[in-house]
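hiii so um. not sure if this is the right channel but i have a protein structure encoded as tokens and i wanna go backwards to a sequence. like what aa goes where. can anyone help
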């Protein structure tokens, strides 16, 4: 069973810390009405880590990403980004919400790629990518466009800058969404089942691009995926979730070859369909 990080009892530095985890969940609870989906959650992600969350549907994995992106708000506990409280901090013994200005400033360090592509249909591919850098980061249109074209080349869509999203395949739209997230120069990239809406024959193209990003950048990644081979290839840590709690935490080779917890063994056997519940290497 994973242990709570020692740092979870230490006060975070108000302005962040170079040595603090890039992401830290400290005693976090999330409930939707009477349904508690995350229970007393404690874990951290260090700079440059590629951490993948696996587990059955409804185990709380996507909720974790949405909390980091401030699309949902924790019911209790604290989330830190670079040692700085994300949405709430402890002040005078009370849990107090931080200003929206502070939350927005911290959120600019985070990019997210969703299951659905969420591209603006009334904008070209290039306009989709430069929208946030221009209007959120204050970049010039020329600089943002130059960066966007570099990213389109990186994701294999150099010839689609002026295309409308509706003319693209699902895989191409997801690659545009990846480029759009990277255009903000995020320190943290959240990936939420980015291949689940794609046709099986194009999943490999998108995963290859993400593998390349993992290999060629130091972006910290927090990943939710049902692609176990991708999780094994990209991750340096894998966390198994069930019932809103961490059941097991291990390096990918250990998690996929010799999981200790019976729940993990059962889940991997169901997902992989192998007699021994393991996944091979390339």
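sure thing!! here u go:
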């Amino acid at each position: 069973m994973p242990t709570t990080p020692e740092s979870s009892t230490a006060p975070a530095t108000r302005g962040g810390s170079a040595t603090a985890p890039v992401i830290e969940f400290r005693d976090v609870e999330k409930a939707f009405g009477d349904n508690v989906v995350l229970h007393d959650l404690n874990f951290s992600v260090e700079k440059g880590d590629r951490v993948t969350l696996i587990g059955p549907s409804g185990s709380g994995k996507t909720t974790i990403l949405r909390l980091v992106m401030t699309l949902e708000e924790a019911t209790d506990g604290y989330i830190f980004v670079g040692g700085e409280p994300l949405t709430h901090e402890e002040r005078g013994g009370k849990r107090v919400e931080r200003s929206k200005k502070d939350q927005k400033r911290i959120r600019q360090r985070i990019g997210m790629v969703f299951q659905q592509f969420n591209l603006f249909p009334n904008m070209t591919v290039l306009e989709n990518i430069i929208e946030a850098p221009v209007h959120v980061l204050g970049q010039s249109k020329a600089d943002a466009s130059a960066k966007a074209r570099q990213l389109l080349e990186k994701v294999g869509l150099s010839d689609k800058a002026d295309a409308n999203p509706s003319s693209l395949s699902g895989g191409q739209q997801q690659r545009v969404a990846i480029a759009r997230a990277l255009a903000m120069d995020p320190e943290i990239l959240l990936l939420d089942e980015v291949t689940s809406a794609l046709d099986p024959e194009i999943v490999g193209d998108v995963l290859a691009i993400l593998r390349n990003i993992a290999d060629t950048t130091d972006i910290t990644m927090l990943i939710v995926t049902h692609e176990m081979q991708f999780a094994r290839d990209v991750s340096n840590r894998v966390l198994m979730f069930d019932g809103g709690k961490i059941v097991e935490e291990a390096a990918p080779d250990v998690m996929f070859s010799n999981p200790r917890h019976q729940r993990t063994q059962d889940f991997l056997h169901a997902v992989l369909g192998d007699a021994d519940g393991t996944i091979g290497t390339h």
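oh and Residues 120-185 form one domain.
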